[in-house]
Amino acid sequence: MPVSSTDTKRLPLVVLASAPITGHCAPVMQIAQAMVERGFEVIFMSSQEYKEQIEKIGAEWWECLSFPGSLEELQRLPPGLEKTILELEKFFLDATPSRSDGMRALLEKVRDRDADRDVVIVNETCSMAILPFKYGAPLPKGYSEFPKVINVNLVPLTVTSIDTAPFGPALPPDSTSSGRARNKLLNEMMFAGPMRHLNDHLAKVLSECGCSSSPIGYFMDTWMSSYDCTLQLCSPSMEYPRSDLHPSIRYAGALPLRGLNPDFPLPSWWSEITANAALQGKDRKKVIVVSQGTVSIDLSELVVPTIRAFANREDVIVVSILGTKGATLPKDVETPANAHVIDYLPYDAILPYADLFINNGGYGGVIHSVNNGVPMIVAGVSQDKAEMSARCEYAGFAVNLCSQTPGSEAIYKGAEKIFKNKAYKLKAVRLQQENKDLDSLGIIEKQILAYAKK
């Protein structure tokens, strides 16, 4: 799609960038599609694998590097702080030079096409395409100043605060005087110790990008608070309260439910789900959905234990989503009569019928559950999942099992806790409405227009 339509000259050109990972790219693609539908011309920078999807929504695709180098070292490490730090380095920091080069080339091409075109950038935190320009990297040719940047955040807030412990250990917030003393000490220890490497590595990367200055403070603050504004894509109740939250960071609410593709082939057992939903009282069975997302593929962690936990419950239907097209259960795992297993199924197809969603705490899965008003069991400690799971528990709509491999007994007990306590469902529904009321896409559009040159 060319960026030269005269029909939308009055609107700024919207340039979007995200990390080339499905959990990051798909939500930003939803933003891109919404802006296209609202009359904006859009260019989306991402990797080759998303080209067709980006062009299908009416945006122009601009290529960026997927990931530099080999990631084999990561595969060998168990979940934990060491692996998280290495993931941040390899997935994101090391990609910064190539991603910022790609953004420079994109913006220069825009100037070649139209020297006067107004540009507003919507950047996803983990893209790393914009950060160098905020610390003095040479401007793209044709620009006297860098375009305004709206950063959208699709992970838990990592910023430091007097009210929270450092990101990583998944400790609850504490704003008492003793709690703040704890937080101060732990933050100092974390960033003088394990996290110091990230600060040093960021400084090295920014130097390679030709930056004239370095961030003051911690990397976990820098990549979220260096932009004109950062919109956290959840409601305030889904995060920890921070009395000192950086003024550039605001809550915009979760992205809304997306309409289902009418051509999506529903499974043969779908009529059982819809028929069950029409029943009343004790005749209606509880529907439990379990999925580990698209990254964690060891089905023995959550999917298999959940199937086994409820195998003898005639009042329960278990729907297991394996997360990858063509995936199957291990050959030694039997599927009981009350369970349905499917390789891929959109969350928003099944969650409206669900009483409980069991998930490893990925940000995307949590957002889908909240958008459908469904309480959760969360069980994950890899990447940002321990922190996300802790936030779900703190928000009051989830039971956190604090384990990557909780086992059938713990899953069963967690489900019973939720089914016996209506507070979990009520909180999930309140969060659903809170996010809907914020109108995330409307907030993003208004911010784009506010940054447009008058």
Automatic annotation (TrEMBL):
Gene3D superfamilies (alphabetical): Glycogen Phosphorylase B
Domain of life: Eukaryota
Keyword Ribosomal protein among UniProt keywords: no
Matches recorded under InterPro entries: UDP-glycosyltransferase, UDP_glucos_trans
UniProt-listed CDD domains: GT1_Gtf-like
Keywords, sorted A to Z: Glycosyltransferase, Transferase
GO molecular function, one term: UDP-glycosyltransferase activity
Name the UniProt record assigns to this protein: UDP-glucuronosyl/UDP-glucosyltransferase
Organism: Pseudomassariella vexata
